[in-house]
């Protein structure tokens, strides 16, 4: 492709991209293809001769697009959003064009220094201590692994990196039963052994019970184990439950454990001053992760990893022999020593574009609106006699289920007012039937293509999970007007009665 052809195709593509974003709501949110369908349409062998760009674009539209789930669709309510925004996309175009390898300062000084500055901005924006430093990782899974590896090296005096485990370590790691699977994965990869991850019980809000954490630590200590680290969730993946950071930090500092805070999704809510108190106790934590690539309008991948002790991080990952180093830290950052990869993408550019284009207040306003929409929807759901909200809604994630007050068989035939309101207590058999009913409901909803939800299990009960965090999500004014006025609804989302 000549540069002139590149120019022409790039212009066409930008038009396609703008049209796509404008019309994305017309696609089914969740791809409706069957397993293997796309693969069968792709030739088994690559072309020997180059093909014209038009042929590539035709196949992109005809073969690839039907197999895409449209994450930027305004009715994408599944998982956590992987949201993007026009300034972020434009920055990604520049990053791809520059094609810079940002492993060390010298390989692109601007990339290193912009990353340093943007991480300082973000640190201040979400209220982390000024003395902490940040680095952009590809994912929260990587950041959490880096944290566990650093904890391991600090505790072993860099012994495991140097010699491997010698059997005397017997480390244990703690998180709640609601914690993300990346912790178990990280504990395995770090060589600590998945069997040495202790899952601590949660309370009725699905937050870790600090007393149970302390009991587990004490028990492990008395049986000759070495409790190493705790991972506290600020916003679990299931229901965005908030582990009590201050109480947990008190326990980890008293027992000498490392503390990592996993705020991969909900950390973005810390942009709002009204959520800042969730960080109480952070000064006693060691590391923190938030993903701008989830809720902060920045394309995947961009995971912001912050650490209290940069030296501990670098000593875990640097590979230069010690004798080559100066006593002081270099005045520049060589981010190859701040994580697992050597080669790194120039990720700071898109975050810089996003923060500058939205402005901090612009970001706050959108996050606040998402939370307000979620709260309103949760109130409406909880006012429906046949539905119930299954967990608190501190941010923008609603866990709910269909739980007909009638016997479960048929859709209600009587008008609502005549139906018996009190719901009988849920027996063990009911849970199974309700789970099946809600699984069927989820499948039918998603098959419409009009929206996409996922599910979680809370205390064995299936909950549909609806996350309002999409860049383009708006309340539909027409349907909103048809709904009962909010004034008639309860002000407080009733606490789940079923935990
Ligand atoms: C999404 C999520 C993760 C994993 O994030 P990746 O960037 O996909 O690795 C970890 N923890 C929590 C709480 C999450 O919500």
Short description:
By secondary structure, the protein is α/β, with parallel strands linked by helices. Helix content is 39%, strand content 12%.
Question: What can you see in these coordinates?
Answer:
The chain is 39% helix and 12% strand. By secondary structure, the protein is of the alpha/beta class. Helix 4 (86-98) packs antiparallel against helix 13 and helix 9 runs parallel beside helix 10. 39% of the residues are buried. The model has no long low-confidence stretch (mean pLDDT 92). It binds pyridoxal-5'-phosphate.
Write the layout of secondary structure elements.
Layout: H1 3-23, H2 37-41, H3 53-64, H4 86-98, H5 109-126, E1 133-137, H6 140-155, H7 159-163, E2 171-176, H8 181-189, E3 197-200, H9 210-222, E4 226-233, H10 245-255, E5 258-262, E6 287-290, H11 292-295, E7 303-307, H12 310-317, H13 348-383, E8 387-389, E9 397-402, H14 428-447, E10 454-458, E11 461-467, H15 477-482
Helix pairs in contact: 4-13, 5-13, 6-8, 6-12, 9-10
Bound molecules: pyridoxal-5'-phosphate.
Pyridoxal-5'-phosphate binds at residues 80, 139-141, 180, 182, 233, 237, 262, 264-265, 291, 303.
- Which sequence of SSEs, written as H and E, runs from N to C? HHHHHEHHEHEHEHEEHEHHEEHEEH
Summed up, the helix count is: 15
Ligand inventory reads: pyridoxal-5'-phosphate
Low-confidence stretches: none
Helix content percent band: 25-40%
Radius of gyration: 25 Å
Largest sheet: 7 strands, mixed
Q: How far is it from the N-terminal to the C-terminal residue, by CA?
A: 61 Å
Shape estimate: globular
Strand content: 5-15%
Name the average pLDDT.
92
Physical arrangement of strands within the biggest beta sheet: 1-7-6-5-4-2-3
Instruction: Briefly note the structural class of the backbone.
Output: alpha/beta
Number of beta strands: 11
């Amino acid at each position: 492709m000549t540069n002139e052809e590149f120019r022409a195709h790039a212009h066409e593509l930008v038009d396609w991209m703008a049209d796509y974003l404008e019309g994305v709501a017309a696609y089914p949110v969740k791809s409706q293809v069957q397993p293997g369908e796309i693969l069968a349409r792709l030739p088994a062998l690559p072309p020997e001769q180059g093909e014209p760009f038009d042929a590539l674009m035709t196949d992109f539209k005809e073969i690839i697009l039907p197999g895409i789930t449209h994450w930027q669709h305004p009715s994408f309510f599944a998982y956590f959003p992987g949201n993007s925004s026009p300034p972020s996309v434009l920055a990604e175009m520049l990053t791809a064009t520059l094609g810079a390898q940002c492993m060390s300062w010298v390989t692109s000084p601007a990339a290193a220094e912009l990353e340093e500055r943007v991480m300082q901005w973000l640190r201040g924006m979400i209220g982390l201590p000024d003395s902490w430093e940040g680095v952009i990782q590809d994912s929260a899974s990587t950041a959490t692994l880096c944290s566990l590896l650093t904890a391991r090296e600090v505790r072993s005096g860099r012994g495991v990196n140097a010699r491997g485990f010698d059997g005397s370590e017997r480390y244990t790691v703690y998180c709640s039963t609601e914690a993300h699977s990346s912790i178990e994965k990280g504990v395995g990869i770090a060589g600590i052994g998945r069997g040495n991850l202790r899952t601590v019980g949660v309370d009725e809000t699905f937050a870790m019970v600090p007393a149970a954490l302390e009991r587990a630590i004490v028990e492990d200590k008395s049986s000759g184990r070495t409790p190493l680290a705790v991972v506290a969730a600020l916003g679990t993946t299931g229901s965005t439950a908030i582990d009590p950071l201050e109480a947990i930090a008190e326990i980890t500092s008293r027992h000498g454990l490392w503390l990592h805070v996993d705020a991969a999704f909900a950390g973005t809510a810390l942009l709002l001053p009204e959520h800042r108190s969730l960080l109480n106790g952070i000064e006693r934590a060691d590391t923190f992760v938030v993903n701008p690539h989830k809720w902060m309008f920045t394309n995947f991948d961009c995971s912001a990893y912050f650490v209290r002790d940069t030296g501990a991080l670098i000593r875990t990952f640097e590979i230069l022999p010690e004798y080559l180093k100066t006593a002081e830290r270099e005045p520049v950052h060589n981010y190859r020593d701040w994580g697992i990869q050597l080669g790194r993408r120039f990720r700071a550019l898109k975050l810089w574009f996003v923060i500058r284009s939205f402005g901090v207040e612009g970001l706050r306003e959108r996050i606040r609106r998402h939370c307000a929409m979620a709260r309103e929807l949760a109130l409406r759901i909880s006012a429906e006699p046949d539905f119930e909200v299954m967990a608190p809604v501190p941010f923008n994630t609603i866990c709910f289920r269909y739980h007909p007050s009638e016997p479960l068989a048929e859709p209600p035939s009587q008008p609502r007012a005549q139906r018996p309101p009190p719901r009988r207590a849920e027996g063990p058999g009911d849970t199974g039937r309700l789970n099946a009913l809600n699984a069927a409901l989820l499948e039918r909803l998603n098959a419409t293509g009009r929206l996409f939800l996922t599910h979680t299990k809370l205390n064995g009960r299936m909950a549909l999970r609806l996350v309002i965090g999409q860049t383009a999500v708006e309340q539909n004014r027409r349907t909103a007007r048809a709904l009962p006025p909010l004034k008639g609804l309860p002000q407080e989302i009733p606490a789940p009665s079923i935990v």
